[in-house]
Amino acid sequence: MPDPSSHTFSKQERMTSRKLMEQLFAGGHRSMAAFPVRAVFMEMPADSKMAPVQVLVSVSKRHFKRAVKRNRAKRQVREAFRQNKHIICDALRERPGTALAIAFLWLSDSLHDSRSVDASVASLLRRMAEKL
């Protein structure tokens, strides 16, 4: 079983660099979907100051006009990542010097229960680990 302290979602794991976001969406990335979430990810060289995985969660205003619903969807995706990030972290441990930038994008026009969001995020992380 993974270390319980690894089941956190720290500030260092949040993608805050606009430059990194532009690189992720400009090109040189891979994408996969597991409804209701799509993941866009990119490998990058690891830096000693940053976390091995940096995550961005986005829910478009086009899908949910009310911020309450957007925030709920983002919270569900963040929680699903927090609980399943050991899948991708284990794969990255086998490749030292490699870090990963991931953007989770919400695809659906409706809210889904947390169990289905968790299953789709776990599926995406397993598929990403296989690609690495």
TrEMBL record:
Domain of life: Bacteria
The keyword Oxidoreductase appears for this protein: no
Molecular function via GO: ribonuclease P activity; tRNA binding
InterPro entries from the UniProt entry: Ribosomal_Su5_D2-typ_SF (IPR020568), Ribsml_uS5_D2-typ_fold_subgr (IPR014721), RNase_P (IPR000100), RNase_P_CS (IPR020539)
EC numbers: 3.1.26.5
Reaction catalysis annotation: Endonucleolytic cleavage of RNA, removing 5'-extranucleotides from tRNA precursor
UniProt-listed Pfam families: Ribonuclease_P
Keyword Signal appears in the UniProt entry: no
Keyword vocabulary terms for this entry: Endonuclease, Hydrolase, Nuclease, RNA-binding, tRNA processing
Coiled-coil regions, chain positions: none
Swiss-Prot/TrEMBL GO biological process terms: tRNA 5'-leader removal
NCBIfam families registered for this protein in UniProt: rnpA (TIGR00188)
Primary role: RNaseP catalyzes the removal of the 5'-leader sequence from pre-tRNA to produce the mature 5'-terminus. It can also cleave other RNA substrates such as 4.5S RNA. The protein component plays an auxiliary but essential role in vivo by binding to the 5'-leader sequence and broadening the substrate specificity of the ribozyme.
Subunit structure: Consists of a catalytic RNA component (M1 or rnpB) and a protein subunit.
Family listed: Belongs to the RnpA family.
HAMAP family documented for this protein: RNase_P
Descriptive protein name: Ribonuclease P protein component
Gene name per UniProt: rnpA
